[in-house]
Design brief:
This protein is about 35% helix and about 15% strand. It is built from 29 helices and 24 strands. GO terms for molecular function: CoA-transferase activity.
Length: about 775
């Protein structure tokens, strides 16, 4: 069945804030059919004048984020804005002083959802520094910068302001779920979302949770992946070897099968200890081979591999061309399409960005009729939704974890022969009792779920899975495309058995195209999307941001799943949705390709520098591997910094009068700054800089987040009691509901098969004899096979 309307057709959204996070949140609603009105001053949204480089025309990024939106410019009177608010279903705003969130909440209908996006949320020790914290400083604070690079060099940021895109994605998911509840109960919501907390989840939580689960700093000294990005005869190629088998296959690929029994090289610490030796043999092997030759060979071994996408090459990559991933935007740029698709969701070309005030006097929303909210609306917006979770690793489990936190009953299904691989990653050795329960990634991405075992390769397991799906609302999977075909569980089968069920598929590269059957992890997506191209020192090779693509893919799939429920509720039929990892990454990494195809400007990595601030960087302090990050956004701050570092002559130097002028002498300025910071410890440097209202932060490791005073005060870390591990801290959600309890985690990640009997009995009506029969034929199990 093909829907005639997009999922959120008729939804009325007011966007009252500037920046990537609110802009992308609004774009996700536009893509799903909502009418989004951008409220601007007479001068326009500051994003209109953003330029990524001095020689670039402004507007490329704004045009992408504002495509299809309307613009209302306000003057001294806010009458038109207040009229819009009175008829709004969703309001996206911030805490930047332009609009008071409490006044907005008072102006909107009781059924409206207000999402407030700010650096640190509405409370906590860091709120006062919120307006002087950009993405770069938040990366220093959340453990991202501190974990990236080799110990002898300075740590480096993830390029492209990826955390802001991630926060906008999280805001869209939270708002979409709350819209669903508001439509059914009349109860609106105010959502307080912290960009810092969102970034802590995506860019620091794995190291922090690992430290909490295992003790100490499990991730240790910062490092880079080995193997990762390698020069070839005609460019660059990226590898990823997550599993032991993939690394063994990699050794065969590079013609070093003689090292298959080298136990030290098989471990990441061993490869790091022998870094020069390892890199020399990999580079020597690749030097006389083309990127295409290496990609074909590695793909044949099922080693995750990708050419390194650049702004000049990305649109011509064969997989993207065949699938039509890049589309012509109204401003002439080539832009990534909406990262999910379905035969039941109409495809619309991207709209144009509006001129300032283009829609003044043209948007007439009747004030919402005040409805009496349900007497006892559910506390969580997805209460009553049941999801069959066939996902593994991090991207898929992240999607279902968010939906579970928002109230869905998520039943995680693991195979008897192949449980979720993250159970075995980074935890305890096989000599430990129930060692498969210790995987930190598994623990932090499967909270609030019920866990059962079902071996889908058996007739009884498949039959039971179909029975469970038939009693659910959504089934989500992230296998390679061929796997469901092998199980005979593709869409036609599911839809015939359960016509009301939506099937959400999360393949790495898609259900069709030249890369359809390739294996891909987050690192591969970062190499294939251009994220790696934007990360690293200006004179060095690209490096991967590390891990962000998994939670990004999860959030886009979560949003698509909620949108699909809107169609199901309207039509009565479930739909088939494809939400790929790589296309979520391409949307978030869009700026370089937009700049190149619109303006002819080829962006590239700049180490810790970046547009919007100069100087900006990390500077060595007194002590062993101690660093501080600072960023100067305006002339007042520049003058203050010159005085603090003891170089007042800089303040009267006319050749350093603005950001772009200072960027031309950045090396010289950085040396002067580090001449001061290197004599002080980072705590004193940060205290001095902040006392002069100069944005600064210590560069911390991921494990340090466990004791971060702001995250602690906000209740970000949630303590769980696990029957095997004991007590440890894990992450909840990066937002709160106004007036609601912060706690998001009600149960830890399930033990292997913990809820098998419960679900089979209570959901499917199985008797003890039925369950025993399933166990006898190997369809269910109490422990993973072979262990």
């Amino acid at each position: 069945m093909r829907a005639e309307h997009l999922p959120f057709d008729g939804l009325r959204v007011v966007e009252l804030s500037s920046g990537i996070a609110p802009g992308y949140c609004g774009k996700m609603f536009v893509d799903a059919g909502a009418t989004v009105v951008k409220v601007e001053s007479a001068e326009g949204d500051p994003m209109r004048s953003w330029r990524a480089r001095a020689d670039s025309r402004p507007g490329a990024l704004f045009s992408f984020l504002a495509a299809g939106k309307k613009s209302v410019a306000h003057g001294e009177s806010n009458a038109e804005v207040m009229s819009l608010l009175a008829g709004a279903d969703v309001v996206i705003t911030g805490r930047d002083g332009r609009w008071d969130p409490s006044e907005i909440a008072a102006a909107v209908p009781t059924s409206a959802v207000v999402v407030v996006i700010s650096p640190f949320g509405d409370s906590g020790p860091y709120v006062d520094i919120g307006l002087s914290a950009n993405e770069f400083l938040l990366q220093a604070m959340c453990g991202s910068i501190g974990g990236r690079g080799w110990p002898e060099s300075e740590p480096v940021q993830a390029g492209g302001r990826l955390g802001e895109w991630f926060a906008g994605s999280f805001a869209a998911v939270a708002a979409a779920a709350s819209v669903r509840r508001a439509r059914r109960t009349g109860a609106g919501e105010t959502i307080d979302l912290s960009v810092y907390e969102a970034m802590a989840i995506a860019m620091g939580s794995l190291g922090a949770v690992s430290a909490s689960v295992l003790g100490g700093d499990a991730f240790g000294t910062r490092s880079l992946e080995l193997p990762s990005i390698v020069p070839t005869a005609d460019g660059l190629v990226g590898f990823c070897t997550i599993t032991a088998q993939q690394f063994q296959d990699f050794l065969v690929l590079i013609e070093r099968a003689d090292l298959l029994d080298d136990e030290e090289l098989a471990t990441m610490p061993g490869r790091i200890a022998r870094r020069e030796e390892f890199l020399t043999m990999v580079h020597d092997w690749a030097a006389d081979k083309t990127t295409a030759e290496i990609v074909d060979s590695a793909a044949a071994f099922r080693i995750p591999v990708s050419p390194i996408a650049t702004p000049t090459t990305i649109t011509s990559i064969d997989h993207y061309a065949v699938r039509g991933v890049f589309v012509e935007a109204a401003d002439g740029a080539r832009a990534p399409r909406v990262p999910y698709r379905s035969p039941s969701i109409p495809v619309r070309p991207p709209g144009a960005a509006p001129a300032i005030g283009a829609d003044n006097g043209r948007v007439h929303w009747p004030a919402a009729v005040a409805a009496e909210p349900a007497q006892s609306p559910p506390r969580l917006p997805l209460a009553g939704v049941r999801i069959v979770d066939l996902t593994a690793f991090w991207a898929g489990p992240m999607a279902t974890q968010v939906l579970a936190a928002l109230g869905a009953d998520v039943i995680k299904v693991e195979g008897v022969r192949r449980p979720d691989g993250m159970r075995f990653a980074g935890g305890r050795p096989p000599s430990w009792d129930r060692w498969w329960e210790w995987g930190p990634v598994f623990q932090c991405s499967n909270t609030n779920k019920r866990g059962i075992t079902l071996e889908l390769s058996t007739a009884r397991g498949r039959e039971t899975a179909l029975d469970l799906i038939a009693r659910s609302d959504i089934v989500i999977e992230n296998f390679s495309p061929r796997v469901l075909a092998n199980f005979d569980l593709e869409w036609d089968v599911v839809h015939s058995v359960a016509p009301q069920v939506t099937m959400m598929r999360m393949p790495a590269f898609g259900l069709d195209g030249p890369w359809r059957d390739r294996v891909g992890f987050a690192q591969t997506m970062e190499q294939a999307s251009g994220m790696a191209w934007m990360t690293g020192s200006s004179e060095g090779a690209p490096i991967i941001p590390r891990g962000l693509c998994d939670p990004l893919a999860g959030l886009h799939a979560s949003f698509a799943a909620i949108a699909a429920l809107e169609i199901r509720d309207r039509t009565g039929a479930g739909i088939h949705v494809e939400s790929t990892m790589v296309e979520a990454a391409l949307n978030v990494a869009a700026e370089p390709v937009l700049e190149y195809t619109r303006n002819g400007v080829e962006l590239r990595r700049e180490g810790n520098r970046g547009p919007g601030a100069s100087p900006q960087g990390v500077y060595r302090c007194k002590g062993d591997d101690q660093w501080v990050a600072l960023a100067v956004f305006d002339e007042r701050t520049w003058l203050a910094l010159a005085e603090v570092i003891g170089h007042s002559e800089l303040a009267v130097d006319d050749t350093l009068c603005d950001e772009w002028a200072r960027r031309g002498r950045a090396d010289e300025i950085d040396k002067l700054i580090e001449g001061w910071t290197s004599q002080e410890n980072p705590e004193d440097v940060v205290a001095t800089l902040r006392a002069h209202r100069i944005p600064a932060a210590s560069v911390v490791g991921a494990a340090d987040l466990l004791e971060d005073e702001h995250l602690t005060a906000r209740g970000f870390w949630e303590t769980v009691e696990h029957p095997v591990i004991g007590t440890f801290k894990t992450t909840g959600m990066p937002f709160t509901y106004a007036g609601g309890q912060r706690k998001w985690v009600t149960t830890p990640a399930p033990l292997y098969g913990q809820h098998t009997d419960e679900v089979l009995r209570d959901v499917l009506g199985c008797t003890p004899a039925d369950i025993a029969s399933l166990e006898e034929v190997g369809a269910v199990a109490r422990r993973p096979a072979g262990l």
